[in-house]
Amino acid sequence: MIGISQTPALQVDRPRFEKSSATPDGFEDAPSGEGLSGYLGQDVDWRTCGGEYTCASVLAPLDYANPSDQAITLALAKKEATKSPKLGTLFVNPGGPGASGRNLVTYFASKGLEQYDIVGWDPRGTNASTPVKCFDDEATDAFNQLDASPDEEAETNALIAGTYEFGKSCWENSGELLNHISTIDTVRDLDLLRDLVGDEKLSYLGYSYGTQIGSFYADLFPQRVGRLVLDAAVDITDDESVIQAMGFDLALGNFASWCAEHSCDLGDSKEAVLTTLTDFLDKLDARPLEVGDRTLTQTLAATGIAAYMYGGIPAWQVLAKDLRAALDGDGQALLKSSDGLNDRSDDGSYGSLFYSFPAIGCADSTDDGVVDAEKKWVEDQAKAPIYGKYFGPGYTCALWPVHSSPQFKPTGSGAAPIVVVGATGDPATPYQNAVTMAQQLESGVLLTYEGEGHGTFGGKSTCIDNAVIAYLTKGTVPADGTTCQ
């Protein structure tokens, strides 16, 4: 690993490298025709790809400003409508950024929505669509062994150097794709897909980062908005008072209270459980656990614990057991949980999510460099003492090899009603994000679930499910401020 003093480029935020000639998988010649005409004239060739599902791939411009220059591939999956009258297509996205929309189709809660074709797509840069490529698996493992919350100069230098090399590898292996991977680009893709399936207006349900896709779509194409549901809203404001780590700290505190009440052998009070957990993580900083030929570090353990927060109480029951095992010297379950959040398979290979997540996130955000990232880390710890600390400083975008896309605050002016769903105990997208999204979107309607976990529609609350289904199938808009328990 090179040190910061040996790498002058590390002194420059958002470093730029020589032109990359990388041609990621799925780069294709642009279809003939002027402008977008060749893309709009494509036939979508749906073919069986297992059970009741069909799959297809289409072309989209790498750069919508120059559609004839280069095409990329978008991969789709569909579960066909089984009831009449057919309502068209419901596009779905699981978030991430970078999670697979094609996979979502296979487990999406479609009961009550059988009048729709359910279509998910892998957004550009991800999975079976033209993917971002970066480090190989071995180098990615080494990168993940770095201490993400450094407490000494050598660890800081190693993290900065490793992050720089990670971004450089993404540029060398992905090239111009990184300049055209923002949510704005994905929204243009989604509108292309809407046209290709023959729908005049978009019906859409997006979770987490998928709510950003939906809100941006409402702003860029308000007259084409049909029925949009945005569940587990991300922050679309420029208000930084609520950060993601606050959601994880809230969820961890809720877990600790539940744990103490249910005699989970980690402490007899919320404070005692949290102390047990943070003491364990702090000890791992100097003495990580050996797990076979791998190591459970503080950073990987914190990531693993965070993963359990997504599932609410059912996942908490498993965490209590797995954390007890780790305290007794067996870190296998926590390491496996961390692998899941990092998109690492049992064979050591990484999926595209680990690479597309920062690529899309850095395209969509601005930063003020490495020094400011360290300043914000201090501020984050004041807001969220646990995960504000363990998430560490945000060096990735400060050292990302391309600049960010144009920034704006979507309001969806002129769009049809948009239902925004938020859960009060959501760890990854704090509930306040749903409140502010519904307020900022001019036609936003807030639907609240008083409960735990990340994402609500699909089995957590009959009240929420019924309201969403009635909206998507009948156009019945729930009363703004409706709360479900």
Overall, the morphology is globular
Strand count, sense and closure of the main sheet? 10 strands, mixed
The number of helices is 17
* Residue share in β-strands: 5-15%
Q: N-to-C terminal Cα separation, in Å?
A: 51 Å
DSSP, total strands: 12
Label the CATH architecture of the domain at 37-130 and 183-238 and 409-484.
Answer: 3-Layer(aba) Sandwich
Task: Compile the SSE list and pairings.
Layout: H1 37-40, E1 47-48, E2 53-61, E3 71-79, E4 88-93, H2 101-107, E5 116-122, H3 137-144, H4 153-174, H5 183-196, E6 202-207, H6 209-220, E7 225-231, H7 244-261, H8 270-286, E8 289-291, E9 294-296, H9 298-309, H10 313-327, H11 332-341, H12 353-363, H13 369-383, H14 387-390, H15 395-398, E10 418-425, H16 431-440, E11 444-452, H17 462-474, E12 482-484
Helix pairs in contact: 5-6, 7-8, 8-9, 9-11
Describe what this molecule looks like in 3D.
The chain has helices at 37-40, 101-107, 137-144, 153-174, 183-196, 209-220, 244-261, 270-286, 298-309, 313-327, 332-341, 353-363, 369-383, 387-390, 395-398, 431-440, 462-474; strands at residues 47-48, 53-61, 71-79, 88-93, 116-122, 202-207, 225-231, 289-291, 294-296, 418-425, 444-452, 482-484. It has 485 residues and is an alpha/beta fold. Among the domains are: 37-130 and 183-238 and 409-484, Alpha/Beta hydrolase fold, catalytic domain (Rossmann fold); 244-341, no CATH class. The strands form two sheets. Strands 1-2-3-5-4-6-7-10-11-12 form a ten-stranded mixed β-sheet, with helices on both faces. Strands 8-9 form a two-stranded antiparallel ribbon. Helix 5 packs across helix 6, helix 7 (244-261) crosses helix 8 and helix 9 crosses helix 11 (332-341). It is globular. The relative contact order is 0.14. Mean pLDDT is 96; it is low at 1-11.
